Amino acid sequence: MTETSRHVTDGEDVAPTDDSQRAMVDETLRAEGDIGEARSLTQDAWRQLRRSPLFWVSAAMITVFVLMAVAPSLFTSLDPAKGDLSRSRETPNAAAWFGRDLQGYDIFARCIYGARASILVGVFATLGTSVVGSVTGMLAGYFGGLADTLISRIGDIFFAIPLLLGAIVFLSSFRGDDPGYFQVVFQVVLVLVVFGWPSIMRLMRSSVLQIKPNDYVSAARALGASPVRILRSHVFPNAVAPVIVVSTINLGVYIAVEATLSFLGIGLIPPTISWGVMVSDGLPLLRASPHVLLFPAVFLSLAVLAFIMFGDAVRDAFDPKSR
Amino acid sequence: MAEVVLEARDIVKHYPIKTGVLRRTTGWVKAVDGVSFDLHKGETLGIVGESGCGKSTLGRMLMRLEEPTSGSLQFDGVDMYAQSTSDMRRLRRDIQIVFQDPYTSLNPRKTVGDIVGEPFDIHPDVVPKQGRRQRVQELLDLVGLNPEHINRYPHQFSGGQRQRIGIARGIALNPKVLICDEPVSALDVSVQAQVVNLMEKLQDELGLAYVFIAHDLSVVRHISDRVGVMYLGKLAELGEEDEVYTRPTHPYTQALLSAVPVPDPVLRGKREQIVLEGDVPSPANPPTGCRFHTRCWKAQDRCTTEEPGLTMRGDGVAEHLSACHFAEARAVVETTDMSDHSG
Amino acid sequence: MTTVTTDPSAKQYRPENGRLLDVEELHVEFHTQEGVARALNGVNIYLDQGETLAILGESGSGKSVTAQTVMGILDIPPAKITGGAIRYCGQDLLQMGEEQRREIRGPEISMIFQDALSALNPVFPVGWQIAEMFRVHRGLNKSDALDQAVHLMERVQIPGARDRVKAYPHQFSGGMRQRIMIAMAIALDPAVLIADEPTTALDVTVQAQIMGLLKELQEERQMGLILITHDLGVVADVADRISVMYAGRIVEKAAVHDIYANPAHPYTEGLLASIPRLDRKGQELYAIGGLPPNLTRMPPGCPFHPRCGRARDICSSDDPDLLEVVPGRLSACHFSEEVLNG
Fold first, then answer.
1. Which of C284, C288, C307 sits opposite A2 (nearest CB)?
2. In this predicted model, what pLDDT tens digit does every residue of C211-221 receive, in sequence order?
3. Quick check: ipTM above 0.95?
4. Same domain, C211 and C267
5. Partner chains of C (3+ C-beta pairs under 8 Å)
6. Rounded to 5 degrees, what angle do the CA atoms C86, C87, C89 make?
7. Quick one: CATH architecture of A62-322?
C-alpha cells in the first residue's frame, strides 16, 4: 500500500491504469468537483428572479409608472392644468376617459401627471433612508460600543415618534409661504428620511452583527485589512440583501405615506398634482361623483402594490428559504 | 532544536460577564488563563482539548485577533502585543491562520481569485500587480486545485476544496507560522486525509511552523511534533508527541487518551478506559487549586488549595512538562511504531 | 426502582426467529433543481434482536436517508420512495397508513439524533417532554407520567434527576441533553433503536460515556441497534456487523472483525488506511483521491471507479452487484477477491 499511498495523496491525482482511463477519470472528477461555469450568488439570484412571474408583472407595472413620471406626454396629450368649469364633475366619456373633477380638470391627464410626484417622493425617500440607515447601521453593528449605543439610542428617539405625527409637526412648522414644486417634494422626502432611517439602520445593524462573526471577516483582519476595506468588501456586500428587499417594499409604502400626507393637506399641496391631493379633492364628492376619487385611488393602489410585489420577488430570489 | 519563532508567556484572556440594565461587569470568563509555550521553526505544535477549554480563543490570541488581558507573545523577538496597528500589519505577513469551518471562512460573494489574492491587495509590495493572477494560480496549483477555477465562487466547491482555498490564502504571503484552528474537523474522513497530507507536504516544502489546534487526538498525534493538552484555559501537559501519548503523566491526559476509540475491533474490551465523572466546570467559575481536582481520582486536599505549576515532572528518567502534583507516567495507549514500515 | 410497566398484550409485533427488521431493495430519489438525485439505490439491510448494525458512510452516502426512511420521517417531497420494502416483524411498513406507522414510531422503532439541542423542544421542561410519551402512548395521568420520566432520567444517569425534571433543555450540557434524548427514545421500550451520529457533536470523554450507556441499555432490553456513523473508531468499539455505504448503495457487508482485519472493497480499504490511529506513530496516511460523485450525475459503471486505485476498463462500464466473496461477506466490486487477498 505504501507505493500507491503516495500516489493518491492529491485531489486530482488518481492513479489510473491507462491513458484512456485517465482522460475519463479527469473528466468525471472535474464534472463533480465544481459544476459548470463561474456563478456568483447575485447571478443565482437573478436566475431565480427571471423565473418568477411576480417579478415580471411587477416590473412591467413599475416601468409604466416610471415612464409616466419621466414623460407623461407619452400617455396623454391633454393639459392637466387646463380646467373647464362648465364641465365640472363630468362622468367618464370618450373625450375625458376618466371624467372630470370639480374644477373641470381631466382626471386621466391628472392621474398620469400625478405619477411624477409619487415616484419622486418614493424613490428619493427610499434612497435617503437606505443610505443613511445603511451607513449608520454598519457603523453601529461593526464597531459596537459607544458608536452603537449613540446611534441606536438616537434611532430609538426617531423611531418612537409616529411618522404621521412627526410629519404633521415638521411640515406645518417649516413650510414657507409659497414653496415651489421641488421644494415641496424635497420637504416631504426629508420628513420621510428623518423618520424612516431608524428601521433600515436596525435592519442593517442586525445583519452586520450576523456577518461579523464569520471567519472570512476574521481572515481579513488576520491579513491586516483596514476596517474600511473589511466593511466595503466583506461586510457590506453580504449584509445588504435584506436592506434591498425592505427598501423596495418601503418604496411602495412611502408612496402611500406621501398620498396620506397630501390627503391631510400637509404633504404636496395644489397646484402640485399628486394622487394624494386628488383623493383629498375627491372625498367631498364621493357620493355624487365617485369617479373623481376612484381613479386616482386605483392608480395609487396599483403603484404601491407593484413595488411591494417587486420587493417580494426580490426577497424570494435572495433568500429562497423564506418562502 | 531549531530556533524559537513564537514564544508565548503567560497569556491570558478574560471576557467580562455583563448583567443588568447598566451592563455592569459581574464576573469574568477565564477563557485562556496563563498559557506559555515555545514554537520552533518548522515544527508542529498540537494543541488538544475538549470544547470550552479555550483552545480556539488561544488560536485567535496567537493571531492577535483577540486582544490579550495580559501576557506577552514574542514573534522573532518582537512582542506582538506591544505593536501598533500598522506595525502589526507588517507582522501579519509572517503569521497566518486557517479556520475550521470551510463554509464561513470564505466570503461567498468573492471569486476564488479575489479570496486568494486579497493578501496581495492588502500587502501590495509582496507581488507586483501584473504578476498577481499568476501567483494566485500557482498557489491554487500548490494546494491541489485546478488553477483554471480562479473565477469560480466558493459555493461551487466541496468542503475539502474550500479548505484548500483557505490554506492557499493562509500561505499566500509566505508566512513562517500558520495557526490551524481545527482545519480538518469539518471534513469527511477520506477528504480529511487529503488535507492532512497536503498540510504535511506544504510544511516540508515551505518550512512552515504549525500550531495545530484540534479536538481529535488521533489527528493531532499524526501531525504533531510536540503536543499541549488544555483543560479549562490552562495547559495540563506539554511535551514531545511520544512523551504525551505513550507516557502521559497528567490524569486528564490519561483519561482523554483512554476515551478515544481505536478503529480496531480486536482491542474491544481490552483497553483500559478511565471514565471521568461529571461535566467540565464553567470557565466563569473554575475550581480552586488544580482545575481538574473536581473530576480527578487522584485528588487530595493539596489539589484543592495549591495550584500545580506546569513544570518538568515524571519518573526522573524522561520528564516533560505537566501540571499535576502527583504526576506519574501511565501508559494508556499501546503504540505501534509504523515509521520503519513505510517506504 | 420500578421499571416502565408494559402490558405484554400491547405488543402486537413479534419478531420471527429474532429477526426484527428486513429492508429490501430500497430506492429513494430526491427531486432537486439540479435534477433527480438517486439517494438510495437498492439498499438491503436486516437487523436481529440484541445486535448492533453499523451503517458506515460519509456525508451524502445515504446512511441518514436510510435511517429516516426506516423511521418514516423522510420529507416527501422532495424525497420519493421509488421501490423496495421495509419489513418490521414481517409487515411492510411502506404499505401501512400513516396512523399505523405512528403506532410503530416510538413503541416499536425509535430514533436518537446528532443534535440533541434542536431535537428537544426549547420551551418545555425536559421531564414534561419525556412524560408526554407516556401520556400519549400509555395514557398515564400527569403525575404518574412524570414519575416514570424521573425513573428514566435516573436510568440514563442524569444526576439529581428528581430536581431537574422541571429544567429546560438549554440548562443541560451537551452530554446530558443526549442522555435526555436517549431517555425519550427508550421510554416506550422499543425493539429497534436507530442512533444517527449520536456522539458526533460530543467531546471524546462524553462520547465514551454515551456509547457505554447505549450498549448497557441495549443489553438490558435486548434492543436491535442501528448505529449510523462516519466514525470507524466508534464502530469498532460497539458494532457486530457493518454495512459500508457509498453513493447511495451498500458496497460492503460483513462482521466487524472481518472488515477491519481484511476489507473486501477498495473504498473500505481506502477509508481504513486514511484515518490516523491513536495507537500508531509515524503512520503514513493514504488519501482516497477526488470526491464522492454528485448523486444527480452518477458516473457510469461502478460509482467508486473514478477514485479507485484498482479500477480497470470493466469498472467504468459495468456496475458491480453486491455479491458474496466468501461466506458471510459481501462486496460490490468486480475485483473483490483481489482486494480481500491484499
1. C284
2. 888 888 898 88
3. no
4. no
5. A, B
6. 150
7. Orthogonal Bundle (1.10)
